[in-house]
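in:
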């Protein structure tokens, strides 16, 4: 009986200490500037998003929110950095579909584990992929017209660009090739920056791109959007049909999410989510994101976790079916 009482007292004390620690973490956080680590260089889509929301997040938290760029290794350098950071909410990561969903299948030896090393804070945004063509190389106005020509063309006579092997654009292209029953040659570039001039000049004919960097060139007529990989047409391009209208079930987005190191106290995660929600609820911030082609998102930790697991399964199958391996 005495043993049971001691055990009960010990359990109660542990629970009390845990509650006290969580309340203390919530009341003292943040203790200084909060850093959002971005796995790409300055000027890219993820960097733009992070810098856009950082200002309003800082206002809500009462401390500056700064952005630190750590590009390289298919986003693994930045992810590993945050995975090994102190779990106090002061160092965060905004990663993307590569960071959380495709890298575990693409790389046999990954220096971080998306499922084990992070606590989800919130989904943050997404941009639909567009199939864009140079209209002088591919003078088609619809996806159906393009596919009719591609199915009659000699095998591997049509090439497509991507921002790099194993990236979302490459995987979306591989999914497209299989769904359409056509053959094409992959021409990888070191980022969308080097690929875009070649696409505009006609050195390469087509590419899957997220809407953000493609929108200006579509508006100018230098590129033509044949289809959008979202579930419904996007308001800015109402006459561009969905991929799914021709290839049922086809869907692909460039999406992003915010995470903290595993073990970050729940009250701190909640406070970070509240700051992020306040940022994307600000009309000026939200409009700036939408004008750049980003659909702002928010979610609970559990919702983000479920979404990431679903995407990892879906893209894992594409990677295995296409026999893509990066190490």
């Amino acid at each position: 009986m005495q043993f049971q009482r001691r055990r009960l007292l010990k359990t109660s004390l542990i629970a009390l200490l845990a509650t006290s620690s969580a309340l203390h973490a919530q009341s003292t956080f943040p203790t200084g500037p909060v850093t959002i680590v971005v796995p790409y260089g300055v000027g890219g889509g993820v960097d733009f998003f992070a810098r856009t929301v950082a200002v309003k997040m800082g206002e809500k938290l009462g401390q500056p929110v700064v952005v630190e760029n750590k590009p390289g290794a298919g986003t693994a350098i930045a992810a590993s950095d945050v995975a090994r950071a102190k779990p106090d909410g002061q160092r965060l990561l905004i990663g993307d579909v590569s960071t959380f969903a495709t890298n575990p299948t693409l790389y046999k030896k990954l220096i971080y584990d998306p499922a084990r090393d992070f606590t989800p804070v919130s989904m943050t945004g997404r941009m639909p992929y567009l199939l864009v063509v140079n209209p002088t190389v591919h003078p088609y106005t619809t996806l159906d017209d393009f596919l009719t020509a591609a199915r009659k063309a000699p095998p591997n006579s049509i090439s497509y660009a991507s921002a790099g092997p194993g990236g979302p654009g490459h995987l979306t292209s591989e999914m497209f090739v299989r769904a359409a029953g056509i053959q094409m040659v992959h021409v990888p570039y070191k980022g969308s920056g080097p690929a875009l001039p070649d696409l505009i000049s006609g050195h390469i004919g087509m590419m899957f791109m997220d809407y953000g960097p493609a929108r200006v060139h579509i508006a100018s007529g230098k590129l033509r959007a044949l289809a959008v990989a979202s579930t419904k047409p996007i308001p800015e391009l109402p006459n561009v049909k969905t991929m799914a209208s021709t290839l049922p079930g086809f869907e692909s987005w460039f999406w992003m999410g915010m995470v903290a190191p595993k073990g970050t106290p729940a009250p701190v995660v909640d406070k970070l989510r509240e700051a992020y929600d306040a940022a994307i609820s600000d009309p000026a911030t939200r409009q700036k994101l939408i004008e750049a082609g980003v659909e702002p998102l928010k979610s609970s930790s559990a919702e983000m976790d479920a979404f990431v697991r679903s995407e990892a399964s879906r893209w894992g199958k594409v990677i295995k079916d296409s026999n893509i391996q990066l190490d």
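note: The chain has two domains: 27-126+255-321, 128-245.
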